[in-house]
Design goal:
Length: 158
């Protein structure tokens, strides 16, 4: 588990054979309160791209096409909105359409019950990051993060 995307060693992922990166957007790249990515984020993706990954794709459960397309445009990356993680159909279509080898894919996200669960279903590498900001959330999102904290605490207590 990483504190943020800036702590991930993408060179190491490359060395481990990862060629395709799939990123969650909300609370992984930007907080729910933001609509623009930071310069730091843009620079990170430039450096990730320079490593040579074959695909870097944003995959969000957010149904706001405007929001996710805006982020995608700022980072100059393709994006999938309303992906319905952890359900498998969007990921399955993506893997098939791009003929990705599952062993070469890593999914980076901040939620156990969507991102990590989806990655585990496909036996894809998951890179779990702390959510950027959990202070301005809807009731449902709050409940999801509370449940996630509870799962993590139960796990680490053992
Ligand atoms: Mg998220």
């Amino acid at each position: 588990m990483y504190e943020s995307i800036y702590d991930i060693d993408f060179g190491l992922l490359w060395d481990d054979g990862v060629r395709h990166l799939i990123f969650d957007v909300d609370n992984t790249l930007i907080s729910y309160a933001d609509s623009d990515v930071s310069i730091q984020c843009i620079n990170l993706f430039k450096s990730i791209q320079s490593i040579g990954f074959e695909s870097i794709i944003l995959m969000s459960n957010n149904s706001s096409v405007d929001r996710i397309e805006r982020v995608a445009k700022q980072l100059d990356l393709p994006a999938i909105t309303f992906a319905c993680k952890p359900f498998v159909f969007t990921m399955r279509r993506l893997l098939n359409d791009r003929s990705m080898n599952i062993q070469e894919v890593a999914l980076i996200g901040d939620q156990l019950l969507t991102d990590v669960l989806l990655a585990n279903t496909f036996k894809i590498i998951s890179v779990f990051v702390d959510p950027i900001d959990t202070s301005h959330l809807s009731y449902l999102k709050n409940a999801q993060y509370s449940f996630q904290r509870w799962i993590l605490q139960s796990f680490y207590r053992q």
